[in-house]
Design brief:
The chain is an alpha+beta fold. The chain is 34% helix and 20% strand. Helix 4 (62-78) crosses helix 9 (193-200), helix 7 (148-158) packs across helix 8 (174-183) and helix 10 packs across helix 11.
Amino acid sequence: MRDDGGTTEESRMTISKREFLKMSGLSAAAAVAAAACSNEAGVAAEGSGLTSIIKDAVPIGIRERAERIAYARALMAKHDIDAILIEPGSAMLYFSGISWRRSERLTALVIPREGDIGVVTPYFEEPSVRESMTIGDDVRSWHEHENPFDFVAAILKDNGLTGGRIGLEETVRYFVVEGLADAASNFEVVPALPVTQGCRMYKSANEIALMRKASEVTLRSYEHVYTSLDKGMTPADVNALMREAQTDLGGSGVWNMALFGRASAYPHGTSQPQEIEAGQIVLMDCGCNVHGYQSDISRTFVYGEPSKRQREVWNTVRKGQAIAFDTAKLGTPAGKVDDAVRAYYEALGYGPGYATPGLSHRTGHGIGMDGHERVNFVHGETTPLAVGMCFSNEPGIYDFDEFGVRLEDCLYMTEDGPAWFTVPPDSLDAPIGRMGAA
């Protein structure tokens, strides 16, 4: 059901970040509680026997999208940007509800600082684009022989803009830059990052609730798959189990990775053939989305009895996660989280820096509608941690000659500091973990 609430033009120019975070279709408590509910009436799938748990997850409504546009406009005024342009992808979905794909034919969302938002799309795509559009009604369709950038320029002109600064969302392709230079030559093209990141980096209660539900889907899937691991399985076998489980529990856009033995030392995998063997590390990195919001959870198991070395490394990584969590205080530069973990590892003889054996990647990344978003837990990142920011916490240890261990759980910043979406496991003997407090 759509929320038909609105936002006045006056409030668009005065809304603060704190007000932006507080505004949502549901109260924080109601949103989290609603998204935490399970769908007990779901129908069991044939394979896994699991049922959907997302029935009561509440999608982002029209009122919250209007609030996002209002806050974006306040940021545009702050950074002297007259309009922003966005191609299909997570940013377009974030502001307009439009779920569409990119092609060589331009579809674009234009948000002027004042006036009405507009969409440009091919004539034959307009009905499909309108299906998911939840805010605004100005859709301008172009035919194959026409220049779509003339339609972008017309939207700007109809909103009183014949020159100024137009911001491009960071993933906009270069042919768009060229097209605007020709059709809207009086405009200076600038990055829209201060606007788009300024909105998307700070999640609302509704967004947190959807990410929590996606995390629940993935964690429950791990519970199911862990008990199904067997000697001789290949990564494809394990991935199929995890894909089926996450899908049956209600996840969309499911993705999975399973690495065994020495392959676990390569954070994003290897093409070398692998099969589960007794005493072997099984490292998995998996996720999905619920109404467009992502989960990202990694777990490391041992098939059979763990060795002393495996336990030692697993416990060290778990301690690294705890150090990262404890360092993530409000106002702390994000890079200090990575520095704290790396200092602990180096004191134990790992590294230095990114050298292996040790932590060969950043400690964590931002997450939301995209699996990887700004900002990151990485050395040198000065952005201070603030309420609503969400991160992965995954300080793995990798030895190319032996194995790798990665535990990854995501956290979000509250007024009281960091909180877990999923709480990391306490022991290699009970390696799943649990949901964080709602």
